[in-house]
Design goal:
The chain is an alpha+beta fold. 49% of the residues lie in helices and 14% in strands. It contains eleven helices and nine strands. The model has no long low-confidence stretch (mean pLDDT 96). Residues 17-145 form the Butirosin biosynthesis protein H N-terminal domain. This is Lantibiotic ABC transporter. Residues 158-327 form the DUF4872 domain.
């Protein structure tokens, strides 16, 4: 392998969230330019999970569907040709990304961000998604979120480790390409399908720690968080940072979903959409307040902050349930 292989005409825009950033790169190369909130919303990306187990040092609050589910949802709703490759062989995994790039197409990768050179904070997160558009003897050329530097490079050795990592949320050297069909479903069809998929899942969670029931569960358990773990104050600070800054677009992905609904309400004249948008505008503000209260509890060690966060979460469970009920009526 000599010299450099680069896909031409890449619009390397780093956005706020990793999976939507990668999808944006792949789809723009195919001539389809959608905003990040639109990618997130059409991928029915919004969810909620209160995740805790004996093996975990501290509970985790998640605001979106599982890694890669967003990509599958988006492909379904837009009728895209999604080609996914997985393998346990590092050699085959490399062929799976080199072949499309050699043929002039960018590739999406799911990997563990811990091993990427450009990551400032080294944490294991196996659900990280990037777009890859080139390589040379030493490096891979990637597009990551704006926060991680947008167009970046990482060593091929680090990339191989990131792809081979096993553990929570990892996939087996997963790579994927997207092709856009000649004609796309109308705005109305795609929006209706995407919001109904999202709302139905949110309103009918199979277990009590997902969807609106998960938010209600968090409302009950967050006030007890100071009695949890060896260093609850550090854990609280980290949790607040994850909610606001770790590629969520702020407010645990609620800002992105609010902006998606605003864009939908401009495309379709619907009272249900306008109702859901104003409720998610309210929810986004409240989620940022929850993060602020959790951070304050981390700094002060004062349980009162967590009790306030609990009542805000109780309110959020109701607001988001109402918003999603409006969306199922579309």
């Amino acid at each position: 392998m000599s010299g450099m292989t680069m896909v031409r005409d890449i619009d390397a825009r780093g956005m706020r969230h990793c999976e939507t950033t990668a999808l944006g790169v792949l789809l723009r190369h195919e001539g389809l330019d959608l905003s990040e909130p639109m990618l997130f919303g059409l991928g029915s990306g919004l969810s909620f999970v209160y995740w805790d187990s004996k093996a975990m040092a501290f509970p985790f609050l998640g605001g979106r569907v599982k890694p890669f589910e967003l990509t599958r949802n988006l492909a379904t709703v837009l009728g895209l040709d999604l080609q996914v490759a997985e393998t346990t062989s590092p050699r085959k995994a490399w062929q799976n990304v080199a072949a499309p790039i050699d043929a002039g197409r960018p590739v999406g990768l799911q990997l563990d961000s811990y091993h990427l050179d450009h990551f400032s904070t080294k944490v294991h997160f196996g659900g990280h998604v990037v777009a890859m558009y080139g390589y040379d003897e030493r490096n891979a050329y990637l597009v990551d979120t704006a926060q991680q530097g947008g167009a970046v490079s990482t060593s091929l050795a680090g990339l191989a480790r990131a792809r081979a990592e096993r553990g929570p949320m990892t996939a087996r050297h997963r790579s994927f390409t997207l092709a856009v069909p000649g004609s796309l479903p109308s705005s109305q069809d795609r929006i209706h399908r995407a919001v109904k998929t999202c709302a139905t899942a949110f309103l009918n969670p199979p277990i009590a720690n997902l969807g609106h029931r998960g938010i209600e569960k968090a409302a009950r358990l967050v006030p007890k968080w100071l009695q949890r773990g060896d260093d609850p104050q550090a854990d609280l600070a980290r949790t607040a940072a994850l909610m606001e800054k770790a590629g969520t677009g702020g407010a645990l992905f609620r800002n992105l979903y609010r902006d998606f609904l605003a864009e939908c309400a401009e495309l379709l004249d619907s009272g249900h959409l306008r109702t859901a948008h104003s409720l998610y505008a309210e929810a986004a503000t409240l989620w940022t307040q929850v993060a602020t209260l959790v951070a304050a509890a981390g700094t002060s060690g004062d349980r009162h902050n967590l009790v306030q966060a609990g009542s805000a979460l109780h309110e959020l469970s109701r607001i988001e349930r109402e918003a999603m009920q409006a969306l199922t009526s579309l």
